[in-house]
């Protein structure tokens, strides 16, 4: 049985959730910057309660049956398992939709397939991050098809869509990262005034999506932090999304600046997130070439991009850079897997020594993602998430055992 | 909570099911023409009740655990999801059996594998539609192996087999189509005297199975409809199955005729089903070549078949042909995906305008399939399906929620 | 409803389990020879009760949610389905981890992946039997990573690992085989003094793992049987594991001898297990070549190994050899699929006639595996398996039905 103190604590938190007025019910989760602060707080609170429930052996299953479809148009291990875990926790069975990889399919094919797989489905999780200007658009096209199907009586329920990474954002990652920050710093309030450096880092690989750095600056800028975005000249992110981050810091009482020196950016940082990405203009060129199926051109682009990356091998996060941060002990974050020098590659985003200091922290960081996804599901399907959580407490069903 | 009126309506329908005396218990569902009319009516009624239950948030889960094995020896998206949805609705977990595609395996391998995967399985859904004379035979071989295993105490339960499309029939499709017709026309009785045209249609692809047109004429002919089978000369279906349809219409008070003009056939039609297939003699030749693994021969055959198809590009269903039907508004049906001219191909089975008129209808048509499969499962495992449905009502478990 | 007599019988067996003091709680199941006799007896008893429960339509589901991860680094059908069945029986959803096949990955990749997939997982089943000296080592590396993650608060639960076949042992196979022997001979006690021949047999295939014969001699030698290990000279198993079997027979009151004549070995045998394997020195050479990715060398090795195998085509188990056994009716065993002469190959491990005599027996033998795996799971997660089984009886939930 759950301890009385824990139970009271959980019920107190659930009462807090009942006070929140999110606008999440019936809405897809595609971009954090389309959501209200109340929405984000609700998801973080619900995710946190679900995590505690599971730790206390309380089963939060709210679906007796139903499918959660995973549509991975790019490889994934950790997000795939997070999605599967979240679905399973709430009672849904995962069914994979295996499409030809990285296709650009639109129109009737998308509309029809979206309906055909959804007759008894409650959620569709989509990863589509290869083509610039396509991933998020594809999700919206699926969403429109589902609206159409639901309105026309084809679908008994409008399945919710969860963005599992697109060309613009990676909201399940950034929200999990936010939960990690809250857990490390004690509260969202404590993050005010903290300096977070989202820095480009060297990697011998090419074509890493921009969605993580974009997602991080766009989300973290809403909590009053001082955001510093560091990258070698030319390694820009999508300008419109940087603009959102700039506006957010203005509104939340933080600040935003761009730096072109990894070292400079590290000074007095509270939090550092060194992570490689392919620059915007390369992604644009790549998408154009992919669209034309120009294999030669793609090879050339990769070659030149890697050659350019190689000029910035000193953009590796190591103990020397760590020493520059606040008290020499900023929190290092990464979405994993990191390119670790001497471990997963000759030279990469982070030195082995620096990574090892924070290895367990990065694992904990990743551990929030299943609960973030489950919270996105719960708040999409239940208008009053606090009430359903209370129902789970009252019902008091064990996750493991015979009672 | 479910509305009292809905509940009374559901209970009335369930009472009706209790009056039926099907012979489905413990029998595989392989071909509609092996089943009694009472069997088909029972499945349609049970499927219909399951659909309403789910819409009313009543969970019809009757398995607390158990596997449903899907064995797709040909590609599938919609039937795969329908099978997964049906299994999940009743409480079974889907486990895929991945075999080398399109193999012709017989003897000990089939017998042994059938038993090895079935120790804790309740159903095996099989799609095997590539080889003429093989698919249905394979299903029966699996069935005999399961009988043997069950009789010898190897298997605690004899898993039921559901034909998810073979060389002869596609019963989950035709039964879903029948439910759609009943839904559109109000009742099975209302279908008496209606003219249904199962017509070949042009497609730039080759080797489409005959199981859908065969399944449609063999099933719809049992409900007193006037069936017209239209195709260019040479595009025959398996003669024995056409013979079944002819006999059925005789017994049910309908009629059956063959036409070699798509246009002529459309006159005064109430229902039209324009769909491409590869002719019987081509399928025979193809199976022979596949058996010999004669790659050159297969290429040649495909070439000559496509060239012959191209003579019949005017076998496209369009608004002009629609105008010829009863009141210019026959119900258009398709098992999807359709080859839509100017959408999925240059020229295909149906014009974009004609398809768009019925697009939502074809989606609704497809939406019955998960419930047909679930009904096949329920009637296979429970001698009195009405009783088990009453048990579901009494138990009153929600599909979504905490109660 | 379950019969009262059956129920009393089940409760009596469960009372017996409560008397046992296994050390299985929280421990991975990697090698039978690391386990105490009490451990093995407990697993066999629990597996047996679970099998009877399911036959009596009692659902032993003890997980309301949770993932069971299957990590197959080599092909599998029957063990894959056994793992899926066991997981499903207890309430867990299977999630496959698809890695590049047969890789040797160590260090940070293994440690990180092990944690990333385990946030909401209860078990990881691993098959890794390609590389000598690697498979079991890999499982321990995963285990150490999970310990690390659990101790550091990354994982809420330490998932248990189940060896689904490695380079050394195949414990779910040998334990299922032991259950089969107990079922055929009436009790474990009745096995004392019986002669079991684990014999090499000819196969036209190459590179079959040694884990089955090793697992069989290491386990069966603990029950007072007279073990005879027969193989052509040069076809040795790993010497350290043969040594374990020798010691075990000493301790259990049985005997152990090696023979180089299949015929001689069969005399007066009570149980025969004719099964092909690749010899130790070939496996060593193969692992070395695989490590160097020496494709030419591998081809050469395969060729020479097959040529050597061909010298021993008379190591086929047939009716003549059967006649040599005790009363001409020893129990034939095989882990399946067997290479059956004239059925799955021209000439193989067993003649068609001899196999057919025992075909159904080999199916029954295989049917214990899902319950062995489920028992390994149950005893890993519940300190007092007898208590949890009593809880299942008290709860009295049907596997099939609405009650």
Provide structural commentary:
Three copies of one chain form a homotrimer. Chain A has 403 residues and is an alpha/beta fold. Chain A folds into two domains: 4-169 and 369-395, Rossmann fold (3-Layer(aba) Sandwich); 173-366, Rossmann fold, CATH 3.40.50.1370. Chain A has 15 helices and nine strands. Chain A has helices at 4-19, 37-55, 78-90, 108-116, 135-151, 171-185, 211-220, 239-252, 262-266, 280-292, 295-309, 319-324, 352-366, 369-381, 385-395, and strands at 67-72, 93-96, 121-128, 160-166, 195-199, 226-230, 255-259, 271-274, 331-332. In chain A, the strands form two sheets. The first copy, chain A, has a five-stranded parallel sheet. In chain A, helix 6 packs across helix 14. Chain A is globular and about 60 Å long. The model of chain A has no long low-confidence stretch (mean pLDDT 95). Chains in contact: A-B, A-C, B-C. At the A-B interface, helix 4 and helix 15 of A face helix 3 and helix 13 of B.
């Amino acid at each position: 049985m759950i301890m009385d103190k824990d139970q009271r604590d959980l019920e107190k938190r659930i009462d807090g959730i009942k006070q929140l007025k999110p606008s999440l019910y019936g809405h897809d989760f595609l971009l954090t910057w389309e959501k209200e602060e109340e929405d984000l707080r609700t998801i973080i609170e619900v995710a946190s309660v679900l995590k505690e429930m599971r730790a206390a052996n309380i089963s939060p299953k709210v679906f007796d049956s139903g499918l959660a479809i995973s549509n991975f148009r790019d490889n994934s291990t950790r997000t795939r398992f997070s999605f599967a875990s979240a679905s399973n926790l709430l009672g849904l069975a995962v069914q994979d939709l295996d499409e030809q990889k990285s296709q650009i399919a639109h129109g009737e094919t998308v509309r029809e397939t979206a309906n055909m797989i959804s007759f008894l489905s409650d959620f569709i999780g989509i990863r589509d991050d290869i083509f610039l200007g396509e991933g998020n658009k594809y999700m919206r096209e699926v969403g429109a098809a589902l609206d159409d199907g639901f309105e026309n009586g084809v679908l008994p329920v409008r399945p919710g869509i969860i963005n599992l990474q697109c060309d613009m954002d990676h909201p399940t990652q950034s929200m999990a990262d936010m939960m990690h920050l809250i857990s490390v710093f004690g509260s969202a309030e404590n993050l005010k005034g903290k300096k977070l450096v989202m820095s480009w880092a060297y990697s011998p690989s090419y074509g890493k999506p921009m969605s993580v750095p974009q997602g991080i600056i766009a989300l973290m800028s809403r909590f009053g932090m001082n955001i510093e975005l560091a990258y070698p000249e030319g390694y820009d992110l999508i300008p419109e999304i940087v603009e959102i981050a700039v506006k957010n810091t203005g509104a939340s009482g933080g600040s935003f600046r761009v730096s072109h020196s990894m070292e400079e950016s590290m000074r007095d940082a509270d939090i550092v997130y060194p992570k490689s990405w392919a620059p915007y203009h390369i992604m644009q060129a790549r998408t154009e070439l992919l669209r034309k199926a120009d294999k030669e051109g793609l090879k050339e682009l990769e070659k030149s991009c890697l050659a350019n990356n190689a000029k910035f091998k000193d953009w590796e996060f190591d103990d020397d850079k760590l020493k520059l941060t606040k008290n020499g002990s900023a929190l290092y974050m990464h979405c994993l897997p990191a390119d670790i020098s001497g471990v997963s590659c000759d030279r990469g985003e982070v030195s082995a020594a620096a990574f090892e200091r924070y290895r367990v922290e990065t694992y904990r960081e990743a551990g929030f993602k299943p609960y973030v996804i489950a919270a996105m599901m719960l708040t999409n399907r239940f208008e009053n998430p606090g009430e359903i959580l209370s129902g789970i407490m009252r019902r008091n069903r064990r996750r493991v055992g015979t009672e």
